[in-house]
Amino acid sequence: MASSTRQSLAQAKEALEPLLAKADLKFAEEIFAIGAAVASSSQLRSILSDPSAEVNAKSGALNAVFGKSVSKAALEFTNSLVALRWSTGQDLVAAFEQLAVFTVASIASANKKLAGVESELFAFQQAVDSDQDLQFALGDRLASEDAKLALVDALTKGKTTDESVTLIRRAVIGARRRRVSVVLEQFGKQVSAVASRLVATVTVAAPITAAQLERLEGVLAKSYGQSLKLNVEIDPTILGGLKVQVAGEILDGSLSSRLTAAKLQLA
User: Which long-range contacts (CB under 8 A, 24 or more apart) does 131-135 make?
Assistant: First the structure.
């Protein structure tokens, strides 16, 4: 991400903060929807991300396209967003998505549901990763959005918070060329960032106890100087020990890795 985009994203979050006190999931849905429309139209994306274009011209384009379909608050925020400098049109699209996720996470935080949303996103991600039929159904480009959303609703009804359902639905229909599980992972990290938590993926050969998990969390939090959300995956192929992926690093203490290293030394 270029410096100008990073600065603009930070400014956009600052502009969004005062709106969060009154924001609801409908507002977040509108930001998601505007971003999706911008992603799908190269012409609109080009106009809105062009740093040389007049602000009034961008505002006119937004009013013409979204003036009758979104709230005044969403339209005003979008106007402030496109007035900032974005390195590419895709950066602007990514900003819409990140800010919508940030809004949902902030709503969940205000409702004391943030930890639940983190867990529910990871649980759905695991369900997608472990079921090829589900992966195909949610990622099928020939399937309609309505069919995919009906499937999501059937899987989450009565089991998942409204905040998580909003994010899961948007991860599915907004995946574009990305895998749904990858989008869910990105959303999960963005949600955890609102709680000032890193996300660590812990891979073990067999389930570990809550006490072991708590000790591991304490060690990692001390090492990284930040609280963590641990997502645990079971993978019998690592044979024993554990592998931790966090902050772009892989800490591999698995038995399978140690056996491989021993074989290489003996070769």
Answer: 135/179, 135/180, 135/181
Judge contact between 165 and 152, C-beta under 8 A: yes
Mean pLDDT score across all residues of the chain: 93
Interatomic CA distance for residues 116 and 113, integer angstroms: 5
Cα–Cα distance for residue pair 118/152, rounded to 1 Å: 17
Query: CA 147, CA 6: separation in Å to the nearest integer?
Result: 36
Helix (H) or strand (E) holding 150, with range, is helix 145-156
**DSSP class per residue in 31-95:** HHHHHHHHHH-HHHHHHHH-TTS-HHHHHHHHHHHHTTTS-HHHHHHHHHHHTS--SSHHHHHHH
- Give per-residue pLDDT as tens, 84-142: 999 999 999 999 999 999 999 999 999 999 999 999 999 999 999 999 999 999 999 89
